[in-house]
Amino acid sequence: MKKYFRLINLICSILLYTFFLVYLYLLLSLLIFGRIDFTGGRIDFTGERYIWRSINIIPFYTIWEYLTEIIYNSSRIAFTNIFWNILIFAPLGLYLPVIKGGKKNIIYLSWIFLFSLTAEILQGILAIGSSDIDDIILNCLGGFLGLIVFKVLLKIFRKETGVRVFTAVTSALIGFPIVYIYISTYLYNR
Predict the structure, then answer these.
(1) Which residues pair with 130 in a beta bridge?
(2) DSSP letters along 40-85, please?
(3) In b/e form, how buried is each residue of 132-149, taking b as 16+ CB within 10 angstroms?
(4) pTM to 2 decimals?
């Protein structure tokens, strides 16, 4: 019986670490690597090269603009921006306590904050989009929601082992199709 549990633990660990690394790769691709233009800048409609850089250091400025756009103009772009900034960091809030263990949420939130801050600083330095304090706020909110999901799962399963198995299985069920789509899209666009 112990061998059976060790085997399940090994499979869960492999799945968790594999899909955590896949998640980090996709997150970095989305935030940094997918936006870098190695040709020396973007080309505008006149054929001229330019570098696009936007920096916002005023908290809640962009969020307020987006919420206003959503309320008054039913802007899907504004809603999508807010939604995705929250959603893409929620898995990080779930993976950190599952992989690391323990119950120090402030440590996990600090890691999420530092990761988001680093991504925004790199976007500003590399001129690959907008560096926005509000993106950091929304990313931390997403990570916090991931931590809440972890706590809810812990209440349901009552042990971290159950949460670990559930997260590993869910990661595989969601991760394999995402990896397949990512790889087939990459191969198709080559």
Answers:
(1) 54
(2) TSEE-TTS-EE-EEEEE-STTHHHHHHHHHHHHH--HHHHHHHHHH
(3) bbbbbbbbbbbbbbbbeb
(4) 0.86
